[in-house]
Amino acid sequence: MITVRNWKAFLLLIILGSALATSAQTAPNVPRSADEVLARANTLIAAKDYDGAMKLLKSAIDRYPTQSQFYLMLADCQESRGLSDLPAAVNMDAATWFRQGLNQDVYVPLACDLFDTYGKAMMYVPNIKPIQQRVADLVANQFPVLLGEYGPLALPGDPMPCLITLTDPQLPTQARGVYQGLITTRPLPVTPSYEKDPKYGADNSFDANPTYGRWAFQQMLLAYEFDREQRCWRLRFRVIWQDVPGQAENRLRLARYCAMLLLRCSSLLHAYAGLTPRFAADGALNVWLTEKGDPGGETYDENIYLYNVGVPRSPTEWARELAHEYGHEALPPVGGYAKPEWGASGYLGERLFLRWLLLNRDAKADSHPWVRGLDEQEIKTGRIEQVIRQFAALGPDSQAMRGTDKVAMDGFLGMACYLEMSRGSEYLITLLKGLATPTYGGPQGFLDTLAAQEAYYQDPEHAIVSLRMAELPNDIPLWIYLRAGAWKGEVTGGGQLKIEVDGKEVKANGNTFTTPALNKGWHSIRITSGAMDAPALSGLKLVRQ
Question: What is the pTM of this model?
Fold first, then answer.
């Protein structure tokens, strides 16, 4: 039978990849008995030498790892040390200060230190009830947004490892590999801040609405993500839902699936885009699962709503809804549209996150049922290729692309997907991050910023532009912004080639061709292969002559 303590030890082995161990050696100047440690520590604390007391207690814990009073005294010192850094005008006890999250620069390291201390104690102390009571008091109103490496061991809710492996060979080496997450497997009673949602649960105009308004929530799960650079755990998602008679297991399962998928999307966001959510200063988003409303989703500040979750959806639809709303939270917007909504970041998020999920999944063995059940054909053909073809038919500088209707938004989505697939995710995200005006056209909008980005990438003396073609529809023109001059093209793949530049055929010499002198601006290059059994077209390199 696996005890809670053994289970948590196993958890730490999985997450951190190394066994917890204590030093059997006696550190210099460590007292010879536990009583002497306590006496010396009390002397240091009385003198307000908290740093000295913490150093002594940490050394003593290495020698006496089962002494609960050492951990409790160390935690008291950490709180007192944190309080000593507060401005003199702030007068409150440590627990209140921690719960309210005042003075974030001090609060964050305190949370890391405290929960590391309590996490280690949970591993070694025979009687963990005093530790659990301390933790319960700290998280009664707010869970910490940042934890040290051992911190998750002290969290209520029995955190479960969630390992995410990214394998896309197009990702940089450092971005591939295993990303680590934790999800509390037991539902936690919501803390007071989350009993009501910020949009419909507050005293506002929605209170009189029989469908939207006066919602109360009772349960939540937490999802933490391991920061590989900073070696700490960051709270990324709170999934919050309502009690429904007879549906407890179903709602718990749904909450877990949402948390697991969003942790995966967070890993993808980091690997492909290097971004964090725009609307959450602390990086943590709240996901509200409601029992009423029209089935679908909405984003409101740092909150994601999934409405009427009792209505069944397909795996692809669940993933699409979350990817859409997470796109609003994470991606820089291009907007100004009248239909279907102001900003395109949600619809772009659908396409990017679903595409990245497919690129990194094992269709037979994936642990997430929604990811395993994604309809690859529907995503690639119905959602991505369709808008790419629309963009290719319009052209980036057309008047239709500058409109405010669905045609214009779909054209932008197709262009963004085209750029991500042909130039890479870093190229697209750099472009989005560089927008001074969040519109497609207009001064310093998407189109202007793209031209400026190309001017930067294309060295005036000897410019090179490389495009990936393997994932693009093979019968569309390639739209490329080029400096003035003639360009030599080299095609990878294909057999007997036919090349058209701006609608006019140019002679191909094997897999190479040279364009006529071109003006600076947008140009279309259409490449078709006449041989049925030739290798697929996979790339194009253009060198300015």
Answer: 0.91
